[in-house]
Amino acid sequence: MVFSKLDAAIYPFINLASQIVKELEENLGINVILSPGSEVLKRSIERIKEAIYSRVTSVYRADLDVEILSHPVAMLLLKSIKDTRLLHIYAEAEKNRVFLNLLSEDYEKLLALAIDGFNWHVIRENYTFFIRFDDYLKASINIIDSHWKLVNRKLVNGYVELSRRDFSRLMAEAYKTRVLEKASQEEVIQIPEHIKGIVEELNKEVQGVLPKVDVRITHISGEFNPLAFPPCILRLLEDADKGKNLPHMARFTLATFLISIGKRPEELLDIFRKMPDYDERKTLYHLRHVAGEIGSRTKYIPPSCATLRTFNLCSPDDDLCSKVKHPLIYYSKKLRTIKRG
Amino acid sequence: MRERLDNEKSGNESFVKRVFKEYYSKWYGEPPKNYNMREYAFIISRKGDMIRHKAFESWDEVREFLRKNVPLHGFYSSAYYLQPSAPDMDAKGWIGADLIFDIDVDHIHTPCKDVHDKWVCLDCGVVDKGMPPEVCHRCSSKRIEAKTWFCEKCLDVAREETIKLVEDYLIQDFGFSPKEVSIVFSGRRGFHVHVESDIVKGLDQRARREIVDYVKGVGLTLTSKKRKVLLPPLNAGGWHGRIAKGVYELLNSCQVDDLIRLLGLKRGPQIEENVREIIKRLEEGKRCSTLSGMASKIWLKAVEKAIAYKRCEVDERVTTDIKRLIRLPGTLHGGTGLIVMRIGLKDVETFDPYTHAVAFKRDYVKVRVLNMPKITFLGQEWGPYDNEVVEVPLGLAVYLICSDNAIVIDEVL
Lengths: 341, 413
Fold this sequence. Notes:
The structure holds two protein chains of two kinds. Chain A is built from 16 helices and four strands. By secondary structure, chain A is mostly helical. Chain A has a four-stranded antiparallel beta sheet. In chain A, helix 4 crosses helix 6, helix 5 crosses helix 9 and helix 5 (64-81) packs across helix 10. Chain A is globular and about 75 Å long. The relative contact order of chain A is 0.09. The model of chain A is unreliable at 213-219 (pLDDT under 50). Chain B is 37% helix and 22% strand. Chain B has helices spanning 2-25, 59-69, 113-116, 152-173, 198-201, 205-216, 238-253, 256-263, 270-284, 293-310, 316-320, 353-356, 394-402; strands at 40-43, 50-54, 73-77, 79-81, 94-97, 99-104, 118-121, 127-129, 144-147, 181-185, 190-195, 229-231, 289-291, 325-327, 341-343, 364-372, 375-377, 380-382, 385-393, 406-410. A four-stranded antiparallel beta sheet of chain B has the order 2-1-3-14, with no helix packed on it. Chain B has a four-stranded antiparallel beta sheet with strand order 6-11-10-15. A three-stranded antiparallel beta sheet of chain B has the order 8-7-9. The longest helix of chain B is centred in the N-terminal third of the chain and has 24 residues, at 2-25. The A-B interface holds A 132-134, 137-138, 141, 146-147, 149-159, 161, 245, 247, 276-278, 306-307, 309-312 and B 134-135, 137, 140-142, 172-176, 199-200, 202-203, 206-207, 209-214, 217-221, 225, 236-241, 316, 320.
């Protein structure tokens, strides 16, 4: 299938898009593209703002060259701002734009985009797509919904069956992952002086708009409210209190969770005291180890929900569980709900 | 007494070394794929540490190493590295890894363990039968020594799980060709399944966890997004089809009374009617059929049974580890003296470790057997023995000595 320039503008992941970017860069020169007041620069800033304010970026059809160049330039700006939250917001908005546009493409086009953009191994049979499981896993691994877990998919002969809608979603996810990966690549970028001003201005605006509460894991410590504990941790605490002999992974989860929310290793001894093999010296040693006070000095965080599920430590969940993939995120979200009353 | 036993045991070690040396003197082995990109590790003596980060340029070097050092245990990495001999894991340069599954009867509860397995607490001395607990139930010590045996029933369970894993999951669902999958007898109580394929080579831990969850049936959703209980069609494919088929077989093969007992249901007049309804709905094979009330209760209980029956008992830690050391096929297992042996898929069913994986098939040796239940070794029944001096085939003697169940007395070598 031959793609058009409009395709390259809508779907920055196809080869034609990078080809056009390269050609334009060669013809125009990077200085012209980034010159003060250039259309591309304007559109790039707009694209980022669209991401922040409407969580989806639009397609500027009036000048496709400008639109095609605005994505790499927006990435350049984002890399200079160095705010991971903003980067995620941009990637998510780009994903949404791609997904919405994919929904109106026909089957042939979807297939061609996936193969050209991501080298996926896909087959189409009538109204269904089949994608090889390794491609599926790489693209779906960041989707939280249990519906996307491989075990809940029809997998036959190495291929996962997908509806047209799910296939489009998967492609959009793969694009999002690529945006995030590209942004994390270390490379020396030399940006003109005037861009620095733009970056600063944009950054200021962003900080004013983005929510103040930081959900990042390391920022949780200091607050202790068992009412906000996720069900898995509550059950482990209950088991520990009953003096059940918890497996290693359960103890690790409990210890790292409580240490992550600000408990000191010595304060946790009471929790493990009822274990049949309790040894105060050894327990304290392990607790101090996971707290990063001794040994490798790595402060461990609890395993993700996926790992807990694998080790059968995930308890019957509540609605919040389906929206998070880490017990600490659950805790921070629940804390906020409780505070709001 | 203790001292004498220790002396005799050191006699055991030199005996084992001598027979192992004999084995490795004629050893060719079979190199794993890209053997020169793998890390190797060995345990040379019982008290010695593991020697790690070995790498070999040629297969002859591997043979030379084994001949010279006669290790009790030999391992290689499932991973491929740019510099397999780098002592620091980060400096090795990970390129990819095979997908490995470990099926070990140690982790599977088999009823026969209550008959032939024993454990002793090294702290309080309590002795009990069956699967060894993590901690002693009397003094909570973790220092537990297990005396385990691998009987015909254990072997059946391990074989069945292995065949299920390879045929139903790896070949049927994941689409690997039988050539990419190799089955290896672990040398003790189970099998390792290695998948050497470019498709899996680059998968990270998270992706491998999805694969392990798939074969273990972890994280299955049985309800729709609106929490309605779903009944998938028989031909659904993947796990949902597997569940539908499993329940269908179960409901069709059981009398209602047996079913009530098996599923732990409360007896009631509607049960039979609901069972018939489920069977009918499964046969209709509609794509989005939902259940409610009593029928959904019966269905969910039956599903639980079907999952337990169809899932595969593999050790998730092995599969999710992308830098795992695994036993090198062809080497001897120092705890049994049996060969860690590659087996063709069609041979798993008839594989008998006590015949096919025996390295020493000739000669007899006199040993004092401390304890041994009745076992069939090299096609002949032996034992039970309790602190008796007997003449047994060399292979059995090595097996008993390696597993600390016998002391060598007189060698006919």
